[in-house]
Write a structure and sequence with these properties.
Layout: E1 10-13, E2 16-21, E3 24-30, E4 39-42, H1 50-61, E5 69-71, H2 77-80, H3 83-89, E6 94-96, H4 119-126, E7 140-142, E8 156-159, E9 168-172, E10 177-181, H5 192-197, H6 213-225, E11 230-233, E12 239-240, H7 241-253, H8 255-258, E13 272-274, E14 277-280, H9 289-310
Parallel strand pairs: 4-5, 5-6, 6-7, 10-11
Antiparallel strand pairs: 1-2, 2-3, 3-4, 8-9, 9-10, 11-12, 13-14
The structure holds zinc ion (2 copies).
One zinc ion binds next to helix 2.
Length: 311
């Protein structure tokens, strides 16, 4: 891999960098002086982005740079798309919460997305949906929630379920930096236009893939309680300071009105999962509206994404 000065990434905080891959972010987190040397990659982007992720790492740390581990906020395909390719290049441990392991070891699939609440982003995502479950059993490690991640000793791991059962966020108490994952996002994920253009707007977790809204609300309340000064989310730009704290407090206080979709598949009853994977999915309520909208949007988004990737 060549050292690439032109790779576009951004600084989140000291020792934390991010890069946007079409509509999803990945982050690199380095340990401070006085702590074990090294850095980790948080999440692994969409399929086809391994080269850009490696180029980002080499732009920051120099040619041949490799992480000590990869940490996953969750295993959705837009956060694990480049994982297998990255592991061929960097054979490192991949840390995830125990409840996320079935989706990383080929044992279970996530409950189906809810197309009645998805629209734009759902269609975008569908281009990257994985057909068969991911299996990286050789590399995967369960996060010890008491001990945290050995390669990232200063960061606290917070279980933030709802979007997925084993979703986690990472928190650095020193400067209250939060790597959120999809527990909340800073764009309107239901709009493909907003997601692609990175318009800033704090929202709950992406609706079409969130399968437990009671847990999702509790998770946002926990994160608001931490009063982060910096939030780096899976989708959308970094938010900071008062703007972040006010918007996050508002989201936590008014979660039902702001985040929970009315009449969605998972609104009344959650999908249920344990350490063996998904074991209950509420029945699908069919409407005709979504078929037309999703069909149209899928065609449009597929076209837009193909064009962007080809460029
Ligand atoms: Zn997700
Ligand atoms: Zn996501």
């Amino acid at each position: 891999m060549l050292f690439n000065k032109n790779i576009k990434y951004f600084q989140v905080a000291q020792g934390v960098w991010g890069m946007r891959l079409l509509f999803v972010n990945v982050y690199i987190v380095a340990n401070r002086r006085g702590f074990p040397k090294g850095w980790v990659l948080v999440d692994a982007g969409i399929q086809g982005s391994a080269k850009r992720i490696i180029a980002m790492a080499e732009a920051i740390f120099g040619p041949g740079a490799r992480p000590t581990a990869i940490v996953l906020t969750h295993a959705h395909s837009d956060h694990t798309g480049a994982l297998e390719e990255l592991l061929e290049h960097w054979d490192v441990p991949v840390y995830a919460h125990e409840l996320e392991i079935p989706y990383l070891t080929g044992k279970s699939s996530y409950p189906p997305a809810d197309p009645t609440v998805g629209e734009g982003m759902m269609s975008l995502m569908s281009v990257f949906f994985r057909k068969k479950p991911l299996d990286i059993s050789k590399n995967v490690r369960i996060i010890d929630m008491e001990e945290g991640i050995p390669q990232l000793p200063e960061w606290k791991v917070i279980h933030t379920p709802g979007h997925t059962p084993g979703h986690i966020s990472l928190f650095l108490p020193l400067n209250t930096t939060l790597i959120v994952g999809d527990a909340f996002v800073t764009t309107k994920p239901e709009s493909a236009v907003a997601a692609l253009s990175n318009i800033k707007h704090i929202s709950g977790p992406p609706r079409y893939m969130t399968t437990d809204w009671v847990a999702a609300e509790a998770s946002v309340k926990i994160l608001a309680y931490m009063e982060p000064r910096i939030a780096a989310t899976g989708h959308g730009p970094v938010m900071r300071g008062r703007e972040l704290q006010e918007a996050l407090r508002n989201l936590a206080d008014n979660f039902e009105q702001l985040a929970i979709p009315s009449g969605g598949r998972y609104t009344d009853k959650p999908a249920e999962a344990d350490e063996t994977g998904t074991y209950y999915v509420p029945p699908f309520k069919s409407t005709t509206k979504f078929k037309v909208v999703v069909g149209l949007m899928a065609a449009l988004a597929g076209f837009a994404v193909t064009r962007t990737l080809v460029k």
